[in-house]
Design the sequence.
């Protein structure tokens, strides 16, 4: 599903050049649940952003379903993204001006789903995330756990092939965090590929495989189970 | 796909609406600013359209004949809209491209009688029968081709017909004019009232031949307007080049040819592009296109200032929108879609502003109509084209002010904004500073311009013109009443409230006529001159307190009538131009005047008989009261104006019971002379005020934003011991600097522009530095006042509160 080879990414400021990814290579198969771990500044988030086509690499190859996407322009990246990738963020990133329903509906609008289908799909996913009763509330009116459930609902409403989660439990207490991890596991069991960046060994245990990064390079790959 | 586009649009509008609602202050500033700017623009647009509509209803290719006159005795040549009686027919005969001509002479307050009803028509035209073949004034009844063919025929407007005949059919009825001699006219046509946007304004058309007298046919006087219908294919410049040869061939006295040049002016240019043409009597609401264009430019500047507010406030708040951009992008929104979304918001906002603007326009129109003396809110305003134009314009304004924020906001990298590290970058701040400086520079420029325009106007109205115009009432005389001048004068002088009564053939402040005079210096050869003349009663200089420079005033006896002439200093200088060593006093007793019996008896100090746009021209006064007085001037006691006027009216009604009493204070007449200037100064002043208001609104928004953004910094500073003053200074310094830079930028431009504008006046104020400094202080104070509200609010907030809010 995902194969990157010798991926490089630099950040330049006026004085220094920092290497975020240093000839990194890795592969994620369809249906896998992979956790990426490592200390702060090891390049985890950079990697996740590149995998999610939010950022582009400076060198190296990125095959997404056997298609080279490293040199895609912004428009092509946006198109690929909206059909294939769902994001879950640590800070939820819901749009404050939209209700729960409208937030979840948004990806469907961008992918051009008809109105009647949208209502059905949004209701189904809200139901599944047990947040249906909050459909007309605004994000500020929800607890953190509820907000993250909405965010996950929004990430999966388009039935993406892959979900990228960036510390999805980072802003949640442990009970709410476990709920979220259960949800992700469910999704994975139904066939969605999941790549998750996390600091938490506890959360990482939900995955099939842990990739540990240090200074932009893969150090260890642990296969779970 | 269609429903999807609608869904997206709905989503955008929803977000836009909720955003507007959430940020009430910003939305309010933007909507108020934009709507005021738009209202100003719409009103100016209506004005410009109205101005452009002048004389547009004529379909033929019409030109007016004009002259450049340079007579001996005049300091400078003058362009006039007048021409001579024989010119029309002879030019038509000599040049095949001239298809038709008509001449127009006019009479004001023309007395007409039908049975026992007597009406003074404000202005009537005596015209050639071709008038209606050239001009598209529509007849309600009668045949435009033949109605004026015979002598003693007349066409009246619907309004005049109503006044004279009530509801009866006017056709074929006979009206009588009792003047020097009685004239009868048969009504052969009724015309629709003259449109307000016509330079020619009249209440009736009368056959010219009816009043023809043999002196009219000579090549000696310019007392009418000549209009031509010219072949549209004709080369006007080439035609004008042939006029000197034509004059040489046609004018009976070849000596006179050199005093005249002829030129043509398209009818449609006369209203707005004849600013330099004098004796331009048939040019209703003449208004220079330069002023109209100036209004349009300033109105657009005001709107741009409002647009800048929008850009500034949007980009300043961009951090708040950044997260939304990031999320939308991560979900798959394209940059183009995001740009469209933000543009949609600004378009929505500007459409809301348009609604407010239309309400403002409706509220302001009565005032504007009164100020401009035009009816701007007419059918034009309700036309589909105009409505589409303003909706289109509003959307354009929305796009214009949205394009920068849209491009800027949609360029955010989702990676960065979602991590919460939005850079509101230094560069963006700089761009915002540039815009603020631009705004305030425009506002400062307009402020300076307003001050100088108003000062110049006041200077013109208050400058001592060299004669006394306080408490002087002028009363027009015509026809029969002229004969009663002496009796009227003596009766008035019997009352203590009346300090003086005199008369003349013209009113000061208007263009005076010129006429030919002879002059002979000692035994030098006789010279023919043509200079401005004023025929006056013998006590004229006393009542008007015009000061003598040399010699004596007019004698008070019948024997000296027509023998004594008084010249002004300019004319004295001109007369002695060839005799550099001669003293001014040597002119006294020299041969001068209409005939051989006249001499110069005195020289008066120059006085401004014209508006201060013009230099004092050479002129003379002659005590020919026996030729007829057409303006009585009555000097009344200050403080008793009402009683004095009542007394004058009673006296008038006693002597001239058949004629309505009319009067005007000379001061009011001068205000009328400067009416166009007053209108310009008022409109520029209002627009300048709006520019400042809108700029300050923007500054208010930016200041509140900057205070908001620095809440934490302010809290920390206060914890560390900063005083309220420290904080206010901290928050204000930056903006004050911007306003000062704006001043420095605006000064040289204002200096240049004002010098140029003032150059149009013969008598003008000087540009002083003090005004510039004053405006700088004023603009900084206004800016400080605007900012300090926000700064003080931020400064007095309890720091514990602001620190906890993070």
Sequence:
């Amino acid at each position: 599903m995902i194969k990157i080879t010798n991926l490089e990414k630099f950040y330049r400021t006026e004085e220094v050049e920092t290497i975020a990814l240093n000839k990194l290579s890795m592969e994620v198969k369809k249906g896998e649940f992979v956790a990426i771990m490592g200390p702060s500044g090891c390049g985890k988030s950079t990697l996740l952003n590149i995998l999610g086509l939010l950022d582009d690499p400076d060198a190296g190859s990125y095959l997404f379903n056997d298609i080279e996407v490293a040199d895609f322009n912004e428009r092509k990246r946006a198109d690929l993204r909206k059909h294939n990738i769902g994001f879950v963020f640590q800070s939820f990133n819901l749009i404050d001006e939209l209700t729960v329903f409208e937030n979840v509906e948004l990806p469907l609008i961008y992918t051009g789903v008809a109105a009647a289908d949208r209502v059905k799909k949004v209701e189904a996913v809200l139901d599944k995330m047990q947040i249906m009763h909050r459909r007309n509330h605004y994000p500020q009116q929800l607890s953190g756990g509820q907000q993250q459930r909405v965010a996950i609902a929004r990430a999966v409403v388009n039935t993406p092939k892959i979900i990228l989660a960036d510390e999805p439990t980072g802003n949640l207490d442990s009970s709410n965090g476990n709920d979220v991890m259960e949800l992700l596991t469910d999704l994975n069991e139904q066939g969605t590929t999941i790549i998750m960046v996390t600091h938490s060994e506890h959360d990482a245990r939900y995955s099939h495989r842990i990739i540990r990064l240090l200074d932009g390079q893969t150090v260890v790959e642990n296969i779970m189970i | 796909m269609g429903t999807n586009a609608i869904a997206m649009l709905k989503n955008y509008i929803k977000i836009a609406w909720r955003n507007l609602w959430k940020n009430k202050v910003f939305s309010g500033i933007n909507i108020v600013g934009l709507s005021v700017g738009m209202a100003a623009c719409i009103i100016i647009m209506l004005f410009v359209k109205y101005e452009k509509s002048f004389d547009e209803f004529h379909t033929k290719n019409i030109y007016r004949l004009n002259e450049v006159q340079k007579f001996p005795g005049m300091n400078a040549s003058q362009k006039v809209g007048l021409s001579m009686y024989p010119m029309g027919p002879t030019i038509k005969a000599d040049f095949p491209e001239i298809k038709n001509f008509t001449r127009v002479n006019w009479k004001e307050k023309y007395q007409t009688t039908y049975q026992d009803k007597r009406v003074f028509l404000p202005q009537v035209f005596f015209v050639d029968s071709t008038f209606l073949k050239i001009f598209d004034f529509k007849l309600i009844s009668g045949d435009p081709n033949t109605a004026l063919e015979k002598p003693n025929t007349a066409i009246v407007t619907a309004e005049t017909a109503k006044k004279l005949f009530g509801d009866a059919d006017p056709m074929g009825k006979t009206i009588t004019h009792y003047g020097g001699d009685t004239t009868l006219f048969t009504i052969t046509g009724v015309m629709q009232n003259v449109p307000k946007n016509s330079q020619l304004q009249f209440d009736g058309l009368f056959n010219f031949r009816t009043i023809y007298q043999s002196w009219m046919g000579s090549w000696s006087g310019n007392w009418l307007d000549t209009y031509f219908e010219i072949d549209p294919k004709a080369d006007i410049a080439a035609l004008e080049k042939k006029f000197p040869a034509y004059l040489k061939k046609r004018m009976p006295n070849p000596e006179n040819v050199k005093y005249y040049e002829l030129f043509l002016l398209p009818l449609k240019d006369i209203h707005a592009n004849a600013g330099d043409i004098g004796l331009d009597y048939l040019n209703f609401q003449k208004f220079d296109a330069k002023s109209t264009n100036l209004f349009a430019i300033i109105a657009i500047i005001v709107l741009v200032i409002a647009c800048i507010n929008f850009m500034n406030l949007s980009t300043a708040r961009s951090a708040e929108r950044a997260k939304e951009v990031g999320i939308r992008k991560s979900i798959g929104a394209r940059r183009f879609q995001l740009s469209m979304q933000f543009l949609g918001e600004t378009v929505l906002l500007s459409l809301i502003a348009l609604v407010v603007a239309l309400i403002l326009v409706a509220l302001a129109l009565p005032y504007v109509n009164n100020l401009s003396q035009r009816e701007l809110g007419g059918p034009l305003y309700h036309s589909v084209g105009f409505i589409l134009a303003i909706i289109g314009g509003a959307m354009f304004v929305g796009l214009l002010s949205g394009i920068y924020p849209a491009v800027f906001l949609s360029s955010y990298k989702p990676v960065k904004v979602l991590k919460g590290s939005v850079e509101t970058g230094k560069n963006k701040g700089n761009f915002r500073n540039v815009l603020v400086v631009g705004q305030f520079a425009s506002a400062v420029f307009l402020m300076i311009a307003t001050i100088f325009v108003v000062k110049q106007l006041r200077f013109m109205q208050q400058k001592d013109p060299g004669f006394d115009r306080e408490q002087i009432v002028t009363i027009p005389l015509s026809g029969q009443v002229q004969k009663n001048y002496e009796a009227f004068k003596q009766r008035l002088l019997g009352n203590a409230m009346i300090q003086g009564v005199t008369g003349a053939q013209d009113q000061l402040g208007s263009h005076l006529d010129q006429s030919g005079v002879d002059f002979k210096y000692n035994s030098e050869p006789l010279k023919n001159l043509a200079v401005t003349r004023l025929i006056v009663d013998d006590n004229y200089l006393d009542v008007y307190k015009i000061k003598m420079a040399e010699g004596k005033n007019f004698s008070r006896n019948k024997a000296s009538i027509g023998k004594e002439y008084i010249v002004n200093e300019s004319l004295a200088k001109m007369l002695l131009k060839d005799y550099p060593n001669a003293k001014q006093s040597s002119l006294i007793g020299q041969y001068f005047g209409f005939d051989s019996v006249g001499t110069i008896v005195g020289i008066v100090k120059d006085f401004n008989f014209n508006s201060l746009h013009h230099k004092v021209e050479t002129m003379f006064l002659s005590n020919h009261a026996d030729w007829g007085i057409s303006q009585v001037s009555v000097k009344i006691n200050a403080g008793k104006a009402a009683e004095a006027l009542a007394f004058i009216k009673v006296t008038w009604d006693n002597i001239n019971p058949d004629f309505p009493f009319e009067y005007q204070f000379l001061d009011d007449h001068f205000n009328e002379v400067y009416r166009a200037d007053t209108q310009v100064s008022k409109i520029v002043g209002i627009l300048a005020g709006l520019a400042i208001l809108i700029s300050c609104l923007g500054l208010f928004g930016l200041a509140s934003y900057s205070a908001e953004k620095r809440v934490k910094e302010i809290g920390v500073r206060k914890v560390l011991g900063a005083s309220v003053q420290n904080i206010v200074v901290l928050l204000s310094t930056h903006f004050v600097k911007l306003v000062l830079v704006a001043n420095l930028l605006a000064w040289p431009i204002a200096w240049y522009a004002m010098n140029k504008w003032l150059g149009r006046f013969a008598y003008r104020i000087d540009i002083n530095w003090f005004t510039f400094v004053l405006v700088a202080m004023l603009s900084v104070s206004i800016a400080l006042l605007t900012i300090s509200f926000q700064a003080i609010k931020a400064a007095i907030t309890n720091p514990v509160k602001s620190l906890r809010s993070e």
